[in-house]
UniProtKB/TrEMBL annotation:
The keyword Ion transport applies. GO terms for biological process: potassium ion transport; regulation of action potential; regulation of potassium ion transmembrane transport; transmembrane transport. Belongs to the shaker potassium channel beta subunit family. This is KCAB2 protein. It is found in: Cytoplasm. GO terms for cellular component: cytoplasm; juxtaparanode region of axon; voltage-gated potassium channel complex. Keywords: Cytoplasm, Ion transport, NADP, Oxidoreductase, Potassium, Potassium transport, Transport. Residues 83-435 form the NADP-dependent oxidoreductase domain. It comes from Atractosteus spatula (Alligator gar). Pfam families: Aldo_ket_red. One of its GO terms (molecular function) is transmembrane transporter binding.
Length: 448
């Protein structure tokens, strides 16, 4: 039924909401009906006032800010901002604690909820700085996603690696420095090299990788005991332990810290796809918790792993990608186009390797390509770093890209990459690939 009525501008301005509702229903002879409408109007006005009062203000930085995108970390239920803030080099080292607080506050107010650190960053000081800021700001713990990485903890032999002892003790120490009861994700920061691959018996090496390859391609549940096959095929002279046992110990320890409430999830960092599949196989076999994410380096000059290997892991077993160094340690920022400026990362003590890389022949070729990419960025109305970060975000398997910044201007520029993402059409991506000339071959026909 269509209801229409006519009223003048004067009556529209002068009549209250209650009067207008009464006018619309004036044809109804029922006094009870009109009373009901008046009651509804009064309730509606009350609810309207309440909703206005209870809407979080723009000063409530825990809101999802316009423009910030949120994605699931792998195929888990954990929602993370597509951009995260890393603390490598900067927190506890390159920048002051005051600047670290400014950066973290700016990130949080712009919708970033993911903050990444590690026990080894600045010998643990990065975790201390991060924890102090969280405590000072009084942000709700439930609004944050805090991740840390375990591998290098101290100088003693038992204070590094992925043994059950160091994973549990190392994470406890990290939580004390962070002043937190738990982290959202704890990463195994590299595979444990205690049993080098080349020390395995040849037969065990071949069969282990054959099994992992079969699972990798067709996602078979483990039907052959990993530990049994490892012990059966182990070196008969017992000169080396099976790497599978090392991974099993790691998976069991990660499951333990999650069950103890010290972490919500666990992931890997710098692991190969085969090693991740082994961890997944062990977890499925023994009813343990598998990793949900691999933290990997990804930028325009480093593509193979994130574009070829990890997408298959994502589709097969749900492992996502949290990527770092989208600007290749600053190489793509454009700051090194005329050499190494003072106070840049490449000029810091301990980063001679980066300086050598920039000044090498390959580094000069990369700078030439960046000049061509700069022209594309100008056409899109963005900076080269924004183009590079948006280029990383376009990958379907990338859950979040970790940013590194030493001042607020850099961070705001990097966050602006979100606005560039919709501009990356297929033709733009193809043009970028043509300039880079390093696109890896990747199949898209993932089988379920």
């Amino acid at each position: 039924m269509q209801v229409s009525f006519v009223c003048t501008d004067h009556s529209l301005k002068s009549r209250s909401a209650e009067d207008r509702l009464n006018r619309q229903n004036a044809s109804s002879p029922s006094l009870g009906t009109r009373s009901k409408f008046r009651a509804v109007a009064m309730v509606a006005r009350s609810l309207g006032q309440l909703s206005v009062q209870n809407v979080p203000s723009s000063s409530d930085s825990s809101m999802k800010q316009p423009g910030m995108k949120y994605r699931n970390l792998g195929k888990s239920g954990l929602r993370v901002s597509c951009l995260g803030l890393g603390t490598w080099v900067t927190f506890g080292g390159q920048i002051t604690d005051e600047m670290a607080e400014q950066l973290m506050t700016l990130a949080y107010e712009n919708g970033i909820n993911l903050f990444d650190t590690a026990e080894v960053y600045a010998a643990g000081k990065a975790e201390v700085v991060l924890g102090n800021i969280i405590k000072k700001k009084g942000w709700r713990r439930s609004s944050l996603v805090i991740t840390t990485k375990i591998f290098w903890g101290g100088k003693a032999e038992t204070e590094r690696g992925l043994s059950r002892k160091h994973i549990i003790e190392g994470l406890k120490a990290s939580l004390e420095r962070l002043q937190l009861e738990y982290v959202d994700v704890v990463f195994a920061n590299r595979p444990d090299p205690n049993t080098p691959m080349e020390e395995e018996s040849f037969l065990h090496h071949v069969l282990r990788h054959l099994k992992a390859f079969i699972m990798f391609r067709v996602k078979l549940l483990p039907v052959v005991s990993v530990s049994t096959s490892a012990s059966t095929l182990r070196d008969p002279f017992n000169t080396s332990k099976s790497r599978t046992f090392i991974i099993e110990e790691t998976v069991r320890a990660m499951t333990h810290v999650i069950n103890q409430g010290m972490a919500m999830y666990w992931g890997t960092s710098r692991w190969s796809s085969m090693e991740i599949m082994e961890a997944y196989s062990v977890a499925r076999q023994f009813n343990l918790i598998p990793p949900i994410c691999e933290q990997a380096e990804y930028h325009m000059f480093q593509r193979e792993k994130v574009e070829v290997q990890l997408p298959e892991l994502f589709h097969k077993i749900g492992v996502g990608a949290m990527t770092w160094s989208p600007l290749a340690c600053g190489i793509i920022s454009g700051k090194y186009d005329s050499g190494v400026p003072p106070y840049s990362r490449a000029s810091l003590k301990g980063y001679q390797w980066l300086k050598d890389k920039i000044l090498s022949e390959e580094g000069r070729r990369q700078q030439a390509k960046l000049k061509e990419l700069q022209a594309i960025a100008e056409r899109l109305g963005c900076t080269l770093p924004q183009l590079a970060i948006a280029w990383c975000l376009r990958n379907e398997g990338v859950s979040s890209v970790l940013l590194g910044a030493s001042n607020t201007d850099q961070l705001m520029e990097n966050i602006g990459a979100i606005q560039v993402l919709p501009k990356l059409s297929s033709s733009i991506v193809h043009e970028v690939d043509s300039i880079l000339g390093n696109k890896p071959y990747s199949k898209k026909d993932y089988r379920s």
